[in-house]
Amino acid sequence: xxxxxxxxxxxxxxxxxxxxxxxxxxxxxxxxxxxxxxxxxxxxxxxxxxxxxxxxxxxxxxxxxxxxxxxxxxxxxxxxxxxxxxxxxxxxxxxxxxxxxxxxxxxxxxxxxxxxxxxxxxxxxxxxxxxxxxxxxxxxxxxxxxxxxxxxxxxxxxxxxxxxxxxxxxxxxxxxxxxxxxxxxxxxxxxxxxxxxxxxxxxxxxxxxxxxxxxxxxxxxxxxxxxxxxxxxxxxxxxxxxxxxxxxxxxxxxxxxxxxxxxxxxxxxxxxxxxxxxxxxxxxxxxxxxxxxxxxxxxxxxxxxxxxxxxxxxxxxxxxxxxxxxxxxxxxxxxxxxxxxxxxxxxxxxxxxxxxxxxxxxxxxxxxxxxxxxxxxxxxxxxxxxxxxxxxxxxxxxxxxxxxxxxxxxxxxxxxxxxxxxxxxxxxxxxxxxxxxxxxxxxxxxxxxxxxxxxxxxxxxxxxxxx
Length: 467
Prior knowledge:
By secondary structure, the chain is of the alpha/beta class. It is built from 15 helices and 14 strands.
């Protein structure tokens, strides 16, 4: 009896452990963005000028057209967790965030502290010091967001490219430091029951896989720091994957021979006219396909985005053998065999369809929105953060702001600063765009509002006819 009792006890404990693990996983799963959400994307230059938040916003606009959410780029080039805390009130809290993603660490880690010649105890101490300071400020940032009743999603840092063969000097070991930053972020997330997206692990996995065959392969730019379009698409994929977004844009399954609808998922099919020789029906989907642009298309070879997140399936069984033309709203979108239609075709990958073309209208507005925000408004915000806040200058006092920037630029030129050229360009952009800030903000807001009008799916007439 004692043995049975003990065994039962172990079984119960085991089941409880599984249940607790499952519950913990559920509690820490990053939530999907919902209707009415104000989402702040907090970060450094990888967020400021990067595109993962652009891809995220486009996905939500096309997949969930009934969800009106606002997404704000809260990245500042060169920033750290300490800087994010310093600008929290005016740059993050001002948007009344309900959700915030945090991607920081690339500057906090202190890239120049690493290298194959920097493995001595003194170097390790400095490296640890930077990470410790980063962790403390990440904790402070998390506390500020929780106090604001904001849901938090931690993104582990994007990778520093320390493996690929490229001419750029290599601060070897930096990527390991970033991995540590990511592990610490997971601990903070656990305390606050916040979501975690392990971007770092995914990027490392992809790099390791492809660098076996090609030692020059990288999803990070030539500077070893900033991902390009492909890398940013991978980051967006990682977030969407963690949020468990649905794969289905729409599923339209028809049995032609029986003249009936087999399945209609995320759509409504009406006016069906079918026989073994062809099919006609009207479909109103609840979503649009995600239009993958040419610049990020190579990412589809790295992550299964189309298979897992972009399926607009047309399945027609019961057709007589032969070739068939698929026509949508009098537009021919392709020719397929009866066997191909029986297996199902993914229209989300077809740029000829009216629904894809509508998605491209949403894409164009999103490009405008992103350009106005990342390219103009964030330049203004960065100058406020790096110069005006520290000098106590009102950024709306244009003459005082101009004088301060010109003085700073002159000092950088005199000291032959390696950042002079960059800051000269940013100063010129600020002086150009600050007087237009109100107009730019309105155009940016109008683009977001227009996306919420253009993204509403329309009914389409499908005709599948024998060639």
